[in-house]
Specification:
Length: about 300
């Protein structure tokens, strides 16, 4: 997260139990901050509580009756799906159709009573929300797919739905919003020539990353063991684990796109995009392209 000195002054102050419309004055910053009482709890509970505000803010701000919504995958998305279902049950929203990005989001939406449809090429999606493993500061380029997938899932559907949406929002904690990223980038590859593909990627990032094939069960070495993960599309997953800070996700994505055998990767750069960044002192709203602060109704 950017240091507090980089944040604008407080733009909004709201009560977590009595949300009202609050009108801002024009603000050249692309950050908006919404505060709520500081949560004195262990870090896991605090993260969950602040992400709940992010989930509610996302639903209340962006979703209108009659929309087709891409339903993301992850902790914050699960809370947003539950809250969306509650808004439908009490009649605040009507005629919502959800397009789930994963088995988990489909299951959560079914329990919440949200009518579902399947994603198809050309699907018109009004809005989508999702978690991200990390988000690059300012650019809002995201990494998804680091977590272990359920069954034979991959992030292809997640990425396709986000790209198809007219607008999308990532809901993350402040520790996931970074100027210098680290960790892994998942890459989907053709299985028959996976070693050649892995060697090409290794040459691209020589000295800066390790290349491991993801196993389907348990732990395995760089080769992925005897049971490598095979997605439902028939692909293997390479985890490109950066040992040096990633200077630019856009440059990494461009390099990976040129490698023979690479089907897709977990880097998402699609705009317009917003991020709702949750901390124990408030929500920071970041937009790309940058926009002035605007009226917020919670």
């Amino acid at each position: 997260m950017a240091s507090s000195s980089l944040m604008p002054t407080l733009a909004y102050s709201i009560s977590p139990t009595n949300f009202k419309g609050i009108t801002s004055t024009p603000n050249p910053w692309k950050f908006r901050r919404i505060s709520f009482p500081i949560i004195r709890a262990n870090s896991t509970l605090a993260d969950s509580s602040s992400l709940l505000y992010a989930a509610k803010h996302t639903v209340d701000t962006h979703i209108k009756s009659g929309m087709v919504i891409g339903l993301g995958s992850g902790h914050a998305s699960g809370m947003a799906i539950q809250y969306l279902g509650r808004q439908l049950r009490i009649g605040v929203l009507k005629d919502i159709v959800g397009i789930p990005m994963s088995i988990a989001s489909a299951s959560e939406a079914a329990k919440a009573g949200i009518r579902l449809d399947q994603y198809q090429d050309g699907s018109q999606i009004d809005f989508a929300f999702d978690d991200a493993d990390v988000l690059e500061e300012d650019t809002l380029i995201a990494v998804v797919g680091r977590q272990k997938m359920q069954g034979e899932e991959s992030f292809i559907q997640e990425k396709s739905i986000l790209n198809a949406a007219s607008r999308h929002v990532f809901m993350i904690s402040e520790k996931q919003y970074k100027s210098r990223l680290d960790g892994s980038i998942p890459v989907l590859i053709q299985p028959l020539s996976w070693m050649e593909t892995a060697e090409q990627i290794d040459d691209l990032f020589l000295g800066d990353a390790e290349i491991w094939r993801r196993p389907s069960i348990g732990q395995a070495g760089p080769l992925g063991g005897d049971f490598p993960l095979v997605t439902r599309e028939g692909h293997n997953v390479l985890d490109v684990i950066f040992t040096s800070p990633i200077q630019s996700l856009a440059e990494v994505a461009e390099s990976l796109d040129k490698v023979d055998g690479v089907v897709d990767h977990g880097i998402i750069s699609k705009f317009p995009c917003s991020a709702v960044i949750a901390s124990d002192s408030g929500l920071y709203i970041v937009n790309n392209p940058s926009t002035d602060a605007e009226t917020v109704v919670l």
